Amino acid sequence: MRSTSSKNRTRRGARAAAAVLAGALALSLTACGGDDNDSGNEQSGTGQETGNTVTLPKLNGESLEVAAVWTGAEQANFKKVLAEFEKRTGAKVTFVPAQDPIINFLGSKVAGGQPPDIAMLPQPGAIKQAVDKKWAKPLGADVIKELQENYSQGWQDIGKVDDKQYGVYYKAANKSLIWYNAQVFDNAGAREPKTWDELLSTAQTVYDSGVTPFSVGGAEGWTLTDWFENVYLSQAGPEKYDQLAKHEIKWTDPSVKDALTTLAQVWGKKDYIAGGATGALQTDFPESVTQTFTGGDQPKAGMVYEGDFAQVNITQAKAEVGTDAKVFPFPAVGDTAPVVSGGDAAVILQDSKAAQALATWLASPDAATIQAKLGGYLSPNKNVANSAYPNEVQQKIAKALIDSGDDFRFDMSDQAPQAFGGTPGKGEWKILQDFLKNPSDIAGTQRKLEADAAAAYGN
């Protein structure tokens, strides 16, 4: 999950709104074994768990291609959503595996005269690039009608460029969560922290019990940007966050120094990270999760930071969400805990009746409900029944996201030009990997971030 011009994204909601959502998460995610049957049956909206609530045309003989960077269970589950579209319309849909950054992959496809009909773009910045390059096509009236019925204004707006709708945010993420091995915490006598200082204390308690506190998937730089964004949003506040996201303040700003200094309290303690910095930089995101939940009460780490989508990897580790694997909101570094979201948007590259129908399908609660039931997925569609999610933890994460309405902050690196915020081995991803390796070089890291940001933003 990793963005666009921030001009096209709503910036509503302030510190108080973030506190409300963070408080809701804190209340709902702490204990997963209690008697809370009502929450599992609540609906976040008016959608049905089953039933055909969206009207689609007959498309017998039509063929479509959908490109996305999704792999493994995520890809397999999405294919089931596409299969239902095929069943309802008669069209044939082929999933095209894409490489990251997907905008470069699409460029090669366009140059070869074979762009997919729809691409799932993980950055608002990529949507704007696709529009600027005249690849993306505006969404039609049927898609927009579905969006207006099923999405908050904020989720509609981040799919717009110059006030025209181009993206359907099919998939969302709550990226302000820390997952932990319940057995490790029980053995150590550790408690779920609510503040950054309490997180450091909890980490020391876990370390003293003989388990390394944190697993970090540093081989993929986007995980490190997510760490930074949560610390920065909580410590510097939403107004500064918005300014930095738009590069209205420089990365040499004292607020960035403060956030990097805070991060160094974890990243700078090699015994706190599984394998130290070297090991973390060789660990990809899926492994960072699975190694936290394998090995009984002696896993490689007791905690791993990342979004709700980590549940797919937790399941692959044969751990049970809510029992073996529990979760707490990213702790407050400043006055309030952070609430950072991300997402993937369907964008039409080849305009046709079939492509518009598929975009309409992806904007519907019917499509999202299929993948919600399979787990490891979160939809911003407010008319997906909360009970469609397969476990209590995910039901509560989903409810908190929907209840937040427009009061969220979108992933900062996903709002940046892709050269800075979304390219492996370059820009923010690479610089934060270097910072993980040498967390004492705060000033040097700031200078590098600013130089690359200025080049990417053109200012």
Automatic annotation (TrEMBL):
Keywords for the protein's UniProt record, in alphabetical order: Signal, Transport
Chain intervals with Polar residues compositional bias: 40-55
Domain of life, per lineage: Bacteria
Residues making up the signal peptide according to the UniProt record: 1-33
Key word Transmembrane present: no
Region of interest called Disordered, as start-end residue ranges on this chain: 35-58
Keyword Transport: yes
Entry's family note: Belongs to the bacterial solute-binding protein 1 family.
Protein name, per record: Sugar ABC transporter substrate-binding protein
